[in-house]
């Protein structure tokens, strides 16, 4: 039982490592997520703000992993063009894009007022 659990975690980490190594968008999302976390420390986010940031970063990264799984599975199934294969890949990529847009909106809602509070005194001396 313990060995199976350890193996499961190992396979999961291999999957994450594969996505990080092979998918440029995963690298981009990870860097932007890290930047948001650093900005969160800089601006001393509230507990609720942290929760929102962590959730949206998590969802973007999770969807990128799922998107890679869908694309890989479709590629395994067929190398020929098929309309439904395209639809499958496009909708999985669309899910990532939608979540990335949502995460940007959440980031703007949280960070813009803090940035404004920091620069407004410099502008309106």
TrEMBL record:
List locations, semicolon-separated: Cell membrane
Q: Where is the active site?
A: 64 (proton acceptor)
Residues binding a divalent metal cation are 71
- What cofactors are annotated for this protein? Mg(2+)
Membrane topology note: Multi-pass membrane protein
CDD domains, per the entry:
UDPK_IM_like (cd14265)
One GO BP annotation is: phospholipid biosynthetic process
What name appears for this protein in its UniProt entry? Answer: Diacylglycerol kinase (ATP)
Native organism is Eubacterium callanderi
The lineage, from the top, is: Bacteria, Bacillati, Bacillota, Clostridia, Eubacteriales
